[in-house]
Amino acid sequence: MQFYDLVGDVPPDFGPSAVTIGKFDGVHVGHRAVIDMLEGVARDEGLVSTVVTFDRHPLAVLRPDDVPTALVSNRQKRELLDEAGVAATLMLTFDAELRALTPDEFVDRILVGALHARVVFVGDDFRFGVRGSGTVDTLRELGASRGFRVVSIDDVRPSGGRRASSTWIRELMDAGDVRQAGVLLGREPSVRGIVVHGEQRGRELGFPTANLARDSEGFVPADGVYAARVVVGDTLYPAAVSVGNNPTFEGVPAKQVEAHLLDVSLDLYGLEVTVHFVDWVRGNVRFDGLEALIAHIRADVVRTREILGLPTA
Questions:
Q1: Other beta carbons within 10 Å of 295
Q2: What strands lie across the sheet with 48-54, from one edge to the other?
Q3: Of 147, 118, 150, 153, which is closest to residue 137 (Cα–Cα)?
Q4: DSSP letter string over 186-212?
Q5: In the chain, N or C: fewer CB atoms in 10 Å?
Q6: Cβ-based neighbours of 63, under 8 Å, separated by 6 or more
Q7: DSSP assignment letter at 128
Q8: How big is the chain by its Cα radius of gyration, in Å?
């Protein structure tokens, strides 16, 4: 996939292209349906399938107190768009300069001047340009005079219900429903980070864990215990994963991600790993003493094995 984070880096001979524009947070099933349409038209008409997206949610500039937590990092988004088969991505920096562009300037500088667009796919609620002054009708009018057509995108509604959206996925993740979130994402939700040293309590209890750094990439689900898979290099390991603080011990920082890999002992310190959340096991609770905690951890491991289809004995 060709990737550009500056309009000026797009080569002069780029395109002509079929373009879609959006935040693409999570690159979920709704996004992938749009990408499939985009690629089909690009293939049929000899165009370069191109995504125009942004390095942050526009609310990060417009209303910082209201900005939602991103489902994926920019690096993850780039990888997911590449996996989806997009030929090119332009990830614009959403800053005061981009915000100030008029609809005409946005079209002329980016869609026409840089990408040589011939087809542009957008949702019915698409807004662009300064203060959101440009609508789909504005885009159609500009396209008619600049040589591209506009195609409206229908919402993807799993089972005919609520439309697939990043907002819905965040709600599910905040409720610990990683399985349903995975259905909307089209893949298991994941967090990626460097393994750092923890308090070693898991090892002392007989269940050593790989603790991810606090600045890990991806949306961390609700506090609780999950059945998961952990990618180390090219290898996938089953794991029971704890998210949040440990209420049995004092002074443990909130929102830790700790993965106990099953049936293997590895030195992972300093390595980057990816945790794929499969299903909820239980919420976090405070136990009266270490014996009760160890008994519940053993039960968590058994339940994790059942979820992942592994032998329990």
A1: 12
A2: 2-4, 88-92, 48-54, 17-21, 117-123, 149-153
A3: 150
A4: TS--EEEEEEE----HHHHHT---EEE
A5: C
A6: none
A7: B
A8: 23
pLDDT band at 72 (very low <50, low <70, confident <90, very high): very high
Cα separation of 129 and 132, whole Å?
5
Check: CB of residue 148 under 8 Å from CB of residue 177. no
How many other CB atoms sit within 10 Å of the CB of residue 152?
A: 11
Question: What domains, with CATH codes, occur in the chain?
Answer: 2-160 (3.40.50.620), 189-308 (2.40.30.30)
Global pTM value = 0.89
From its phi and psi, is residue 242 left (phi > 0), alpha (psi between -120 and 50) or beta? Answer: beta
pLDDT tens-digit series, residues 275-292 = 999 999 998 877 665 776
Which structure tokens are listed for 267? 């030195």
Q: What is the identity of the amino acid at 236?
A: L
Q: What is the rounded CA–CA span in Å between residue 248 and residue 242?
A: 13
The Cα 32–Cα 44 span in angstroms is: 18
The number of residues in the chain equals: 313
What are the tens digits of pLDDT across the range 18-47? 999 999 999 999 999 999 999 999 999 999
Q: What is the CA angle 220-234-232, rounded to 5?
A: 45
Residue type, 222: A
Looking at residue 253, the DSSP 8-state letter turns out to be: P
CA distance 223 to 193: 18
Separation between Cα atoms, residue 285 and residue 300, nearest integer Å: 13
Q: Is the pLDDT of residue 224 over 60?
A: yes
| Per-residue confidence (pLDDT) for residue 249, from 0 to 100 | 47
Contact 19, 118 (CB under 8 A): no
Q: Residue 38's CB: how many other CB atoms inside 10 A?
A: 27
Residue 200's identity, in one-letter code, is: Q
